[in-house]
Write a structure and sequence with these properties.
225 residues, mainly alpha, single chain, membrane, elongated, cell membrane, transmembrane helix, 9 helices
């Protein structure tokens, strides 16, 4: 590979395209972060509802989880952007993508968290109840800390899927990293080189997220028993 910065070389074209690529990278990172936060918060609450909610709340949560897990994420993105407009709800393309990805991932986080909560031995809850803790305190101090560590590996997997899912936002006109790279390919015809650059950037993002999950696991390793 030619590492010079002469016009027509890959490094020259990559430098020329830096603003567009960095903008697309920023959109990918922001949409991923917002979707992960949304999915984590809503998924944990829904997971608690699935495990300890009233029967009607468990039923609603179960319907949501099964529905969202059964719909392809691309269909969900298109519906959020185009379908809601039919009901007079106009959502910007970026936020439609974030909502769709977050709603999709919420179902997976909820199911993972439900499994994590129910994997905690029943004796833990009974012991906490025996020393006089209220339900809220039993949940906060006893069950949730143990469940959080158990759900970390699948949570990381869900985060990785969200990052990869941001590539689908281009279908509604969001210029994320992949679409930004494709726009540059249409200008310079360096298809293989720019696809490889995009692959490297996605690998860096996902590797960083995976290492963050590993760090959290090490920080909470004392919760094992």
């Amino acid at each position: 590979m030619d590492f010079s910065m002469a016009p027509g070389t890959f490094w020259f074209e990559a430098w020329q395209a830096r603003a567009s690529l960095l903008s697309g990278l920023g959109v990918t990172l922001l949409s991923s972060a917002l979707s992960i936060v949304m999915a984590t918060v809503c998924g944990v609450l829904m997971g608690v509802a699935l495990s300890y909610g009233w029967w009607w709340l468990r039923l609603l949560a179960r319907l949501y989880v099964d529905l969202m897990r059964g719909i392809p994420v691309l269909v969900l993105i298109l519906f959020t952007y185009y379908g809601l407009a039919l009901f007079g709800v106009n959502v910007a393309a970026f936020w439609a993508g974030v909502i769709a990805l977050g709603a999709f991932a919420t179902a997976h986080v909820a199911e993972n968290f439900r499994g994590a909560v129910e994997s905690v031995p029943a004796g833990q809850m009974e012991a906490a109840k025996a020393i006089g803790l209220t339900f809220g305190r039993r949940l906060y101090y006893v069950i949730l800390p143990q469940a959080f560590r158990r759900m970390l590996p699948p949570w990381v997997n869900t985060g990785l899927e969200i990052v990869k899912g941001t590539t689908l936002l281009s279908i509604i006109g969001v210029v994320e990293l992949l679409l930004a790279a494709q726009q540059q390919m249409a200008r310079n015809y360096m298809i293989v080189e720019f696809y490889m650059l995009t692959v490297v950037l996605y690998l860096i993002i996902n590797f960083t997220l995976a290492q963050l999950g590993a760090l959290l696991e090490r920080k909470t390793s004392y919760l094992r028993y």
